[in-house]
Write a structure and sequence with these properties.
binds pyridoxal-5'-phosphate, alpha+beta, binds 2-OXO-4-methylpentanoic acid, 341 residues, nine-stranded antiparallel beta sheet, eight-stranded mixed beta sheet, D-amino Acid Aminotransferase, Chain A, domain 2, 7 helices
Length: 341
């Protein structure tokens, strides 16, 4: 597809094939130097480790066109680090931060025509991923891997953009104690697919997962962390070893404290106390901050005072500040923005 055919302002969160992607292969104990290719397909052994035992991890980050016409990425070093953590947990060979950043720069530069215009509401979503490629039949790690990054222009993750969504407390678990909830492994998402289809069939936009050990504490959704705003304007966000350490959430905690002078509490959040919060949002690269208007807990509705029409006022301030930093309208903390072009 040519970028001329894209209606930037009406994009959803989907895949559009762009011109170039990056590929590096791991063999005999080392990653090769990697290349850009126009080939958007992958050919694999029928017995590849990824196909048999789901040995695959991924990342998500975005390239933004700023107000002054540059193309930038937001804290890509943290994606590189998290991917190293994911690789170690699944016995995969880490891809170095330096090579990761270079690969991101190359994919973004080569697909610059697909970075949506400033102000369109769209961005170029980048998907780094790595998977076991050689035949594996006994349960063990592969010894050959492929690392790839492609880009796809995207709009809002939830239909309706900034309109508050309705979620339900989910009876399925996402992550076990001492399991893989804290890394970005494909397996975490595979096991959430039934839960999300079931949620959608019942009219909900997303699932709120609870901690699987006690089912009393708020964890996260299938693709985002939670933030809550108290009635006296504090930001509260769940602390747990079994949720993904969201880069957006970590950035928002800093922005809340240092830019907006808010108090921030990162702590266990009981489902019981959720009804007392003034605002709720889902935060992540894809979700940005998506406001939650209502949570349904087995028939009991928790309706936030911010309502179903628009983002709550504090969430909006956080959203405006974070996206302002990403799009170059507000000065970023040192090291947060990587200028590519
Ligand atoms: N939680 C899950 C399960 C996710 O898949 C994501 C998306 O990456 C997030 C949280 C948000 O993380 P980040 O802000 O780093 O994109
Ligand atoms: C992201 O926000 O980058 C994610 O990986 C979430 C995914 C559900 C799209």
């Amino acid at each position: 597809m040519s970028n001329k055919q894209i209606d930037w302002s009406n994009l959803g969160f989907g895949y559009i094939q762009t011109d170039f992607r990056y590929v590096s292969n791991y063999k005999d104990g080392a990653w090769d130097e990697g290349v850009l290719t126009g080939d958007a397909t992958v050919t694999l052994s029928e017995c590849a480790g990824v196909l048999q035992y789901a040995q695959t991890i991924f990342e998500g980050l975005k390239a933004y066109r700023t107000e002054d016409g540059h193309i930038v990425t937001f804290r890509p070093d943290l994606n590189a680090q998290r991917m190293i953590d994911s690789a170690k947990r699944l016995e995969m060979p880490p891809f170095s931060e330096e090579q990761f950043l270079d690969a991101v720069d190359k994919v973004v530069s080569a697909n610059a025509d697909f970075v949506p215009p400033y102000g369109s509401g769209a961005t170029l979503y980048l998907r780094p991923y790595m998977f076991g490629t050689n035949p594996v039949i006994g349960v063990k790690p592969a010894n050959e891997y492929q690392f790839r990054i492609f880009g796809t222009p995207v709009g809002p993750y939830f239909k309706g953009g900034a309109k508050p969504i309705t979620i339900r407390v989910c009876d399925f678990d996402r992550a076990a104690p001492h399991g893989t909830g804290h890394i970005k492994a494909g397996l975490n998402y595979a096991m959430s697919l039934h839960a999300i289809v079931d949620a959608h069939n019942q009219g909900y936009d997303e699932n709120m997962y609870l901690d699987s050990a006690t089912r009393t504490k708020v964890e996260e959704t299938g693709g985002a962390n939670f933030i809550f705003i108290t009635k006296d304007g504090k930001l509260v966000t769940p602390k747990s070893d079994t949720i993904l350490p969201s880069i957006t959430r970590r950035s928002l905690c800093y922005v809340a404290k240092e830019y907006l002078g808010m108090e921030v509490e990162e702590r266990e959040v009981c489902l019981e106390e959720v009804k007392d919060f003034a605002e709720c949002g889902l935060c992540g690269t894809a979700a940005v901050i998506s406001p939650v208007g209502k949570i349904v807990d087995h028939g009991t509705e928790i309706c936030f005072p911010s309502g179903m029409d628009e983002m709550g006022p504090v969430t909006k301030k956080l959203y405006d500040t974070l996206t302002g930093i990403q799009m170059g309208r507000i000065e970023a903390p040192e090291g947060w923005i990587r200028v590519i072009k």
